[in-house]
Amino acid sequence: MKKLENKTAIITGASSGIGEAIALRLAEEGTNVVLAARRSERLQEIADNIQKKTDVRTMVVETDVTNKQDVEALVNKTKEELGAVDIFVNNAGVMLLSFLKNDHVEEWEQMVDVNIKGVLYGIHAALPGMLEQNSGHIINVSSVAGHEVFPSSTVYSATKYAVRALSMGMEKELSKTGVRVTNISPGAVDTELTDHITDQDVLDMFKDRSMNPLESDDIARAVTYAVTQPDYVNVNEVIVRPMQQK
Ligand code: NDP
After folding, report:
1. Member of which family (predicted)?
2. Cut 0.90: pTM above it
């Protein structure tokens, strides 16, 4: 029997990159997976691919994590169709790097909404059920930028430091409840994340950058490690970065 057979995981931001890879890895461990993001067609393609490779159940729920009702509905639909939520991966995020002097205030707001409020809505929707069942695992995807601040990452880092603070507080508050918390901090991973950057100064800076980034699956394996430990083991923080990233 696989380690996570008959469990159910919700993954936000599952329509690409790290979230997609986490969904596939968890499915390979036997978990039923619920894929959430805004691009439902891409989610459906990914679900179909998982269905070809595994025999778990998959669900697609179009979700904007900045909308509290959407995230509540995501958890409620999952419970109706698949029963309890065992794992909730708060992965959806945006990294709209910019220099403060260029004043991209709408992008700052978007990062706060997706990266912080989105995670809070995930906790709000998933935690009560986990506390009732005395078990569960919440994974929050922060970043190396939640440990260090780089030029142009000031606001993004602020949101990822906030994610890490949430993880640290949850870990302490929930330690006697059976609900485990893992903060995952990736370094540079080759995904669509940088495609949405609009600050020309940042784009120019990136032209001179050469580094072998990680693949999404490198992070998915870290998540799998955390959720497949025995019940008494709480993996609180995993940092994974490319060899060449300082
Ligand atoms: P991608 O851009 O490939 O994935 C981001 C995901 O977030 C997409 O599935 C996107 O789906 C989803 N998303 C964005 N906004 C919303 C929203 N409002 N509601 C629901 N879903 C949303 O990037 P990554 O896979 O790299 O990013 C995943 C996480 O990893 C992020 O939290 C990111 O900050 C973090 N991270 C990434 C690193 C990297 O180098 N790639 C490094 C450190 C951390 P859709 O557009 O369909 O809604």
Report:
1. Belongs to the short-chain dehydrogenases/reductases (SDR) family.
2. yes
